[in-house]
Input
Amino acid sequence: MSSLAVNFLGIPMASPLIGASGTVGFGLELAKFIDMKEIGAISGKGLAPTPWKGNNGTRIAETTSGMLNCIGLENPGAPYFLEHYLPEVKKLGCPYIANMVGKSVEEYAECAKLLSVPGISALEVNISCPNVKVGGAAFGTDPEQAAAVTRAVKDATDLPVIVKLSPNVTDVVTIAKAVEAAGADAISLINTLLGIAIDTRTRTPILGNVTGGLSGPAIKPVALRMVWQVAKAVNIPVCGLGGVMTGEDVVEFMMAGAKTVQVGTANLADPTAMARIVRELDAWCDKNGVKDINEIVGTLKA
Ligand SMILES: Cc1cc2nc3c(=O)[nH]c(=O)nc-3n(C[C@H](O)[C@H](O)[C@H](O)COP(=O)(O)O)c2cc1C
Output
């Protein structure tokens, strides 16, 4: 038996696997399908200081080896989460990371303040959602704005702050360095890639928002490339995600430099996916003589 345990930002985790925001709710449904003690953590659905309605019309479309979504960050708001979900979330059996969004720097800071309570182990700041008109990716595509949000959140909390980056930029390293300089404790990447799907019969976009975010196996090579570039360029830990479906995918992300790895769309296809991926990761370690999973981080010979 190999050890899959990792320590991420001072948080002890049973394995490097984290459920990705937007694909695991607040973890409560997932707990009906898998043993939460086996996974590293959950990153819950993105929360704003007030409830958000999300986008109208069709919000999901299947694509080749992936899916598009334009949910638009629908969420009940941080105060509602704290009152109605957190008491149950505390019993999940794994650390909980609160993913958060805002429409202004001030809203991000307000949300960070609200969510800095016992039961929440870290904040993940989403500056990379492509599906909202205000906020989201607007902050993640400009280094100065990305730094401003990071600084404001850091000033508002004592929790470790993970900043989640967008792949919809020309140079992800510039943004990564900006958030590191602004005090980010870690970086997660990637969020979804902007895309569209078309109904040729009606000549209309399939998604109500026209554009949506592409996720799933189709984006894995792009995600790996960006994780590799960023991990080489910064001195803070990196959490990799994008298209992870198997234990070997996790190994690839860790070799590229990720200390932890998130699983997103795979959960939507199969709610037991993360339990299987933990078993596959364990089997890969046994087969390859790896006693401690941390040994493989950043070992890509390139
Ligand atoms: C339906 C759906 C909802 C999502 N909601 C959020 C969200 O609220 N906050 C966030 O940071 N990322 C959100 N994401 C992005 C995922 O966390 C992840 O970055 C992306 O899907 C790539 O990983 P994957 O290919 O493993 O799904 C969402 C993704 C999907 C598919």
Residues 273-287 form the longest helix (15 residues). The first strand starts at residue 6 and ends at 8. The two ends are 29 Å apart (CA to CA).
